[in-house]
Amino acid sequence: MRDAGRVVLKRKLEQALSEFGEEVSHNALELAVSRLRKRLLPYETGIDLVTVRGVGYMVQVSP
Q1: First-last CA distance in the chain
Q2: pLDDT for 7
Q3: Average pLDDT in the 13-27 region?
Q4: CA 4 – CA 48 distance, rounded (Å)
Q5: Dist. CA 46–CA 4, nearest whole Å
Q6: N or C terminus: fewer CB in 10 A for the chain?
Q7: How far is it, in rounded angstroms, from Cα 23 to Cα 62?
Q8: DSSP string, 7-62
Q9: Is the whole-model pTM more than 0.85?
Q10: Burial class (CB in 10 A: 0-12, 13-18, 19+), 49
Q11: Distance between alpha carbon 31 and the CA centroid of its chain, in Å?
Q12: Is the per-residue pLDDT at 63 higher than 80?
């Protein structure tokens, strides 16, 4: 994971998702992150998506 341990700005994620079609709202991004967290949970991947309030998200990988 190339961005593990670094904060990815919400704006950057919204721009990346909007390349697939329509513009993405803040709520839609938060919903997508929430769903991704729920999908990762049962697999014990050691990957955690951490919210950096007001800034974006960070991927933390447990050893």
Answers
A1: 13
A2: 94
A3: 83
A4: 10
A5: 12
A6: C
A7: 33
A8: EEEHHHHHHHHHTTSS---HHHHHHHHHHHHHHHGGGT-SEEEEEETTTEEEEEE-
A9: no
A10: middle
A11: 10
A12: no
Q: What is the dihedral of CA 8, 56, 36, 12, to 10 degrees?
A: -50
Q: How confident is the model at residue 37 (pLDDT cuts 50, 70, 90)?
A: very high
List strands edge to edge, sheet with 56-61.
7-9, 56-61, 47-52
> Which residue bears the tokens 């919204």?
14
**What letter does residue 6 receive in the DSSP assignment?**
S
Tokens 């904060």: give the residue.
Answer: 7
Q: How many CA atoms lie within 13 A of 48 on its CB side?
A: 9
Cα gap 18→23, rounded to integer Å: 5
